[in-house]
Amino acid sequence: MTVTIYGLKNCDTCRKAVKELETAGLKHRFVDIREEADNVVQVPKWLDAVGAKALVNTRSTTWRNLTAEERAMAEEDPAGALISSPTLIKRPVIEAGGDVRVGWNAATLEDLKSVAAE
C-alpha cells in the first residue's frame, strides 16, 4: 500500500508527516496541493469523506484574511472555496487504504501502520 499525502512543500506538519512515514518504512507519495493536485476532482471526494468542518482550515492565515462575506461564501460552497484557495485545505490530507484522513499526529501514524500491515 502506498500512502498519498496532499499538502504544501513548505508546511511544517506535512514535512513532519513525510519524515515520520519514511522513518516507519511506509511507502508514500507527496502531492503539492497548489502545483500538482487535481483539486477539482480531489476536493469533492475529500468533502464527501470527511466533511467541510474537518477539511476547511479555519485557523489558517488564509482564512483569517478573508472578509466576512468571503467566509460566508466559503461556508456555503466549501468545494468552490477550497478549489480556488488550496491553502484553505487543512493539511495534510492523507489517502491510504481507501480512507481519507486530515491532519497529522501520532495516532494517524499508528493507524497508517496498522492499515499497511493488513
Distance between the termini: 9 Å
Q: Record the strand order, biggest sheet.
A: 2-1-3-4
CATH architecture assignment name: 3-Layer(aba) Sandwich
Bin the helical content.
40-55%
Helix-strand topology string: EHEHHHHHEEH
**What general form does the structure show?**
elongated
- Could you state the CATH homologous superfamily? Glutaredoxin
Q: Please compute the radius of gyration using only Cα atoms.
A: 14 Å
Number of strands: 4
Unreliable segments (pLDDT under 50, ≥5 consecutive)? none
DSSP strand content: 15-25%
User: Can you give the mean pLDDT?
Assistant: 94
Give me the secondary-structure category: alpha+beta
Total domains: 1
How many DSSP helices? 7
Provide structural commentary.
With 118 residues, the chain is an alpha+beta fold. It has one domain: Glutaredoxin. The protein is 52% helix and 15% strand. Helix 1 links the parallel strand 1 and strand 2. Helix 2 crosses helix 6 and helix 5 crosses helix 6. The protein is elongated. 25% of the residues are buried. The mean pLDDT is 94.
For this entry, give a set of tags.
4 strands, alpha+beta, Glutaredoxin, four-stranded mixed β-sheet, 118 residues
Write a concise synopsis of the structure shown.
Helices cover 52% and strands 15% of the residues. The chain has a four-stranded mixed sheet with strand order 2-1-3-4.
